[in-house]
TrEMBL record:
SMART domains associated with the record: AAA (SM00382)
Taxonomic lineage of the native organism: Bacteria, Bacillati, Actinomycetota, Actinomycetes, Kitasatosporales
Biased composition (Basic and acidic residues): 22-37
PANTHER family, sorted: ATP-BINDING CASSETTE SUB-FAMILY B MEMBER 10, MITOCHONDRIAL, ATP-DEPENDENT PERMEASE MDL1, MITOCHONDRIAL
Stretches assigned to the ABC transporter domain: 380-615
Keyword Transmembrane: yes
Protein name as it appears in the record: ABC transporter ATP-binding protein
Length: 630
């Protein structure tokens, strides 16, 4: 169980409102063949949610691009006028018109360059805002996804959403606004001017758009598929590297370096193949556009010559026309690169869209019910609780009725897979029961506000997770507003103060990644100090299975004893020592309580606990110690 103590305060502001889910994400992600239409719908929803708030700034950027293109468009017209009017006038000794055309052309150039500069800076800012928003929202939504999502999604898939998928969007935004706006305006403006210059020649240019359109359609379909494949492989690479480095100890212990390296090479080959496929598609498209461009130049040159001979066109106008043909096909290439990047970003957005489509956390109650203030808080009831992880899997708990009295410690024992952790997860409301209800002091957990529940029910996992930051910061997770003195009191209460004071920087010592700087026992003590500070009504503790040396185990048990005093606690016990400190032991088998009573009483009987007890006794050489009670 990766959750030590889940708190909401790490989550960024509200995610993009996710539409009602219609498809199970697991099915989508697992078979890797999502429905095209649904993916596109989600991508468009994402785009709308992202671009919506930037409508004003985007219109300003569009206006700048438009002005820039108008300035760029007039230059060939000025050249045509200079050739057809200015040069003949100059030949007659009137230099005025030629000078005027030259001056205008010289002004249009810098004006266009200045506007381009303004547009690029402005659109760059918009792109960064959009990216910032996308990354924050994706992160905020991902951290709020229910545990069920994280337990079923392939490891690293969320990291891939936040890294490579967001980066693909970054690429298209960086080049896209320029590529798209400028290219579109340039093309539309060019065609309009061509029609003004010469109708039949412009009609020929327009006719040549048909093969261009067909080529573009082919390209878009192919490149979208190619990029989806690329993103799929990228995700596998992220997952594989993440898994390798998260489990580096196991990798080295089992000498898996070679095998994992080979797997990475295999994935990389897949990536290269997928990239090569998308490269081929782009090459065919670019080549096709160039071919059509050159054909149309030749065609227009021939047609232009005929029209000049017929007296319908002047040489300057033909020159301008041919310059415009260049202007027409250059942006198509730009559009192709944009379409390429858009395909990649599309695939990324679609995948982020799938994530957004998964509803965040278990639903918060519409009208939260405060936990009642009772004289003896911490009464827990499981009422006819049935639970299964997925609709297809069998019930782990099937009609469980159970009551935990306030202030008492209950040890949960049983064979592996009996349902101990599941019961604990339901009590921490990491999952909701399929049927029945779990109550705390009479309030259904589903009706209690998330923040109140998190501070009232704390869970300490087998390997308590320490966040990077100081020891003090890690203890204060239990109550973020706690003062340094309160933190020290909590640490002292669990006997952690001495070892913390002995650290290089005391409470300010950075526990470093995953608490690598602290021993397993010290991490347990920090986690218990966290609980001491949080003072929850109910404590759930998954006892560490890894063996500690005797003094450390004694220290942890002594701390545990202090934390448990006067608090309702449910301990998943893996050892006799822990079971013995409980007031009551529950033996769970196949999701049902098969034995229930004080440990000393059950140990002398002939039931399942007595069996377990004797097994533990023989494993520990017949010397059960109970330091916490001594
Ligand atoms: N995330 C999950 N998705 C589907 N099934 C699960 C999941 N977690 C547990 N199960 C199944 O639920 C049953 C009970 O598991 P649980 O982890 O509660 O047992 P446990 O008693 O805590 O076992 P252990 O002592 O080994 O931790 C098992 O059959 C297990 O396979």
């Amino acid at each position: 169980m990766p959750v030590d103590q889940q708190r909401n305060d790490t989550a960024a502001p509200g995610p993009t409102p996710a539409p009602a889910p219609d498809v199970d994400h697991a099915a989508h992600e697992a078979d890797g063949r999502p429905d095209d239409r649904q993916l596109r719908t989600r991508r468009n929803q994402m785009l709308r949610a992202l671009l919506g708030p930037e409508r004003r700034r985007l219109s300003r950027a569009v206006a700048l691009a438009l002005l820039e293109n108008i300035c760029a468009l007039v230059t060939p017209l000025l050249i045509a006028a200079a050739i057809d009017r200015g040069v003949p006038a100059a030949a007659d000794g009137r230099w005025g018109p030629l000078t005027a055309y030259a001056a205008l052309a010289l002004t249009a150039g810098p004006a266009s360059a200045t506007l381009k500069y303004g547009f690029l800076r402005y659109s760059g800012n918009i792109a960064q805002t959009l990216l910032f928003r996308l990354r924050c929202r994706t992160f905020a939504h991902a951290v709020r996804l229910p545990l069920a999502y994280h337990e079923s999604a392939p490891s690293g898939s969320v990291v891939a959403r936040l890294s490579s998928d967001v980066e693909s969007v970054e690429e298209v935004l960086e080049m896209g606004l320029d590529g798209l706006f400028s290219a579109l305006f340039s093309m539309v403006g060019t065609v309009a001017v061509m029609f003004w210059l010469d109708l039949p020649m412009a009609a020929v240019v327009l006719a040549l758009f048909l093969p261009l359109y067909l080529l573009t359609r082919w390209f878009r379909g192919r490149s979208r598929r190619a990029y989806r494949r690329t993103r799929g492989v990228t995700e596998q690479i992220v997952q594989h590297t993440g898994e390798t480095y998260n489990g580096i100890r196991a990798v080295q212990t089992f000498r898996k370096e070679g095998a994992n390296g080979a797997r990475l090479r295999e994935l990389d080959t897949g990536y290269a193949t997928a990239r090569a496929a998308s490269g081929r598609v782009s090459a065919v498209f670019s080549g096709g556009v160039k071919l059509i461009g050159n054909l149309s130049l030749a065609l227009l040159l021939a047609l232009g010559a005929i029209r000049i001979a017929d007296g319908h066109l002047e040489a300057g106008a033909l020159t301008a026309f041919l310059l415009y043909v260049h202007r027409l096909y250059d942006p198509i290439d730009e559009l192709a690169s944009f379409a390429n990047a858009f395909s990649a970003a599309s695939a990324g957005l679609e995948r982020i869209g799938v994530l957004f489509h998964t509803p965040g956390t278990l639903p918060e109650p519409a009208r939260p019910r405060p936990l009642p203030a009772v004289p003896a808080p911490g009464r827990v009831r499981f009422e006819k609780v049935r639970f299964r992880y997925t609709p297809a899997s069998p019930h782990v708990l099937d009609g469980l009725d159970l009551e935990l009295e306030p202030g008492r410690t209950v040890a949960l024992v049983g064979t592996t897979g009996a349902g101990k952790s599941t019961l604990a997860k339901l009590l921490a409301r990491l999952y909701d029961p399929t049927d029945g209800r779990v109550t705390l002091d009479g309030a259904d957990l589903c009706e209690v506000a998330d923040a109140e529940l998190r501070s009232s029910v704390c869970m300490v996992t087998q390997e308590p997770f320490l966040f990077s930051g100081s020891v003090a910061h890690n203890i204060a997770l239990g109550r973020p507003d706690a003062t340094r003195a309160e933190i020290a009191v909590a640490a002292e209460a669990v006997g952690a103060h001495d070892f913390i004071s002995g650290l290089a920087e005391g409470y300010d010592t950075d526990v470093r990644k995953r608490g690598a700087g602290l021993s397993a026992g010290q991490r347990q003590l920090v986690a218990l100090a966290r609980v001491m500070l949080a003072a929850p009504r109910v404590l759930i503790l998954d006892e560490a299975t890894s063996s500690m040396d005797a003094p450390t185990e004694r220290a942890v048990h002594a701390a545990l004893h202090r934390v448990l005093t006067g608090r309702t606690a449910l301990i998943i016990a893996h050892s006799l020592t822990t079971a013995a400190i409980a007031d009551r032991v529950l033996v769970l088998e196949n999701g049902a309580v098969v034995e229930d009573g004080p440990p000393a009483e059950l140990a002398t009987g002939d039931g399942p606990f007595a069996h377990l007890y004797r097994g533990w006794l023989s494993a520990t050489g017949g010397r059960p110690h109970n330091p916490a009670r001594h």
